[in-house]
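Exercise 7b. Backbone tokens:
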């Protein structure tokens, strides 16, 4: 039986891109990086080139009719990945404008052959290859000549053992094009403007010999270059492996609420705290993190409403200053859920955190770019699953309108995704507005079905006794006997 050939994979040096590619870039592959103007094609190419190029694996960057090398380098050197010491040593820039303007593909190919033989590169970049195609369109047999040129170029690069990238401005990925056929890998970059946000996405339409992550992956261009936000991979235990222990419970920092939960929240669970504005959700979240610190457990919070310097929550600000709680606080207008997940996972691994807070889901949705709000429910499920796979315990808050006649847990229909639900609301007692708390759900666990009044002061939340069952509660109506979730399903206060 013939032994299987192993293809070496190169690390691209672009955060997140190796994950999307399925482990890196196949060495000696013939690739096309395509997309409209301004989407980041040249930046992506140069970032990969500077990361992969070494004296033993030199690179050559051939510019055609796009930006001349000096102008391109003037702007690209602003990025942190740019390494001037590699130029003319590990990295060489060559201008092919004269050959391309002649409109003769044979001359372009001849010049490429000359430069490759002179520098013996392991990495070859041609930017913009689209300019070569356009210059050849005046020929009467342009399509056949282009197809012949592509086949010759691909065979030459393979024989020279070079990994090749053609960069070009293409707008429709479905058009019939010999470049798409010959290419081993096809990177497609997109960008769109919605309101005040610029959203950029990358898709690997093709990569021979390996499985890539399907779909569109958001990316950001910043001072360090491009960063791709690949979906977090949920770790599935191997067959026969023991699942993470979930028997122990952790305390929320509110004694009577821990009693109502059946002795605390089972470790590794996700808890949804739902209630109207001002009902104490953020205060409970801060108590959850503070209790973790007292028990030697670090925490992470993604705050989309109150910020760490906000004087309205001094306890949270103090926790963050201690260094035991990390803040994920992004105000970028083109924010995506995958980016937030990557930021959270990064801080969880850095601090070896056990507790995570998302405050709040309502603010989270508003912080996202409009295009990412369309599938918020689906993306939220990925976030919860990704966090659960790390073993952390998650507390999420959700802003709800208090309607007095029902109790709704989430406007996104996400109540079923969480392991436990605590609901807060306002009630009228003896012509005064008071707060009420109840445990609606703790999966696979016995919990209290009592409705209890609670107060908030400078020391935190204090849960009182069970509310009396009498007229005058809930705006003059009898005590609610049935709780209604966002999707319209009913749930008794003791259901688990």
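Sequence design result:
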């Amino acid at each position: 039986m013939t032994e299987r050939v192993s293809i070496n994979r190169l690390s691209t040096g672009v955060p997140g891109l190796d994950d999307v590619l399925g482990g890196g870039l196949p060495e000696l592959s013939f690739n096309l990086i395509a997309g409209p103007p301004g989407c980041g094609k040249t930046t992506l190419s140069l970032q990969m080139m500077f990361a992969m190029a070494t004296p033993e694996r030199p690179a050559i960057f051939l510019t055609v009719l796009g930006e001349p090398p000096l102008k391109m380098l003037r702007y690209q050197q602003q990025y942190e990945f740019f390494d001037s010491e590699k130029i003319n040593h590990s990295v060489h820039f060559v201008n092919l404008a004269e050959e391309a303007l002649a409109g003769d593909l044979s001359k372009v190919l001849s010049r490429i052959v000359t430069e490759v033989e002179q520098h013996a590169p392991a990495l070859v970049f041609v930017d913009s290859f689209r300019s070569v195609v356009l210059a050849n369109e005046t020929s009467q047999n342009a399509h056949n000549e282009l197809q012949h040129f592509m086949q010759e170029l691909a065979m030459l690069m393979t024989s020279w053992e070079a990994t090749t990238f053609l960069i070009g401005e293409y707008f429709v990925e479905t058009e019939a094009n010999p470049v798409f056929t010959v290419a081993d890998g096809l990177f497609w970059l997109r960008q769109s403007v919605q309101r005040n946000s610029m959203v950029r996405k990358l898709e690997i339409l093709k990569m021979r010999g390996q499985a890539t992550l399907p779909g569109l992956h958001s990316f950001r261009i910043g001072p360090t270059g491009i960063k791709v936000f690949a979906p977090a991979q949920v770790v599935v235990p191997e067959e026969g492996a023991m699942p993470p222990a979930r028997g122990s419970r952790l305390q929320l920092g509110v004694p009577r609420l821990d009693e109502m939960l059946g002795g605390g929240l089972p470790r590794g669970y996700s808890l949804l705290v739902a209630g109207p504005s001002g009902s104490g959700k953020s205060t409970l979240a801060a108590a959850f993190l503070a209790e973790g610190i007292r028990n030697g457990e670090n925490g992470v919070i993604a705050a989309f409403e109150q910020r760490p310097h906000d004087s309205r929550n001094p306890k949270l600000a103090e926790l963050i200053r201690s260094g035991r709680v990390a803040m994920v606080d992004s105000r970028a207008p083109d924010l995506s859920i995958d980016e937030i997940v990557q930021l959270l996972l990064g801080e969880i691994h850095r601090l070896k955190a056990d507790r995570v807070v998302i405050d709040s889901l309502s603010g989270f949705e508003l912080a996202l770019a409009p295009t990412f709000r369309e599938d918020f429910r689906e993306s939220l499920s990925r976030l919860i699953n990704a966090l659960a796979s790390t073993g952390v315990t998650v507390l999420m808050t959700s802003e709800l309108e208090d309607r007095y006649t029902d109790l709704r847990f989430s406007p996104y229909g996400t109540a079923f995704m969480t392991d436990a639900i605590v609901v807060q609301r306002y009630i009228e007692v003896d012509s005064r507005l008071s707060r009420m708390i109840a445990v609606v759900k703790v999966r696979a666990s016995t919990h209290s079905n009592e409705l209890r009044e609670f107060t908030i002061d400078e020391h935190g939340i204090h849960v009182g006794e069970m509310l009396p069952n009498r007229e005058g509660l809930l705006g003059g109506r009898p005590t609610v006997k049935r709780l209604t979730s966002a999707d319209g399903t009913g749930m008794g206060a003791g259901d688990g």
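Instructor comment: Residues 240-244, 471-496 have pLDDT under 50 and may be disordered. The radius of gyration is 29 Å.
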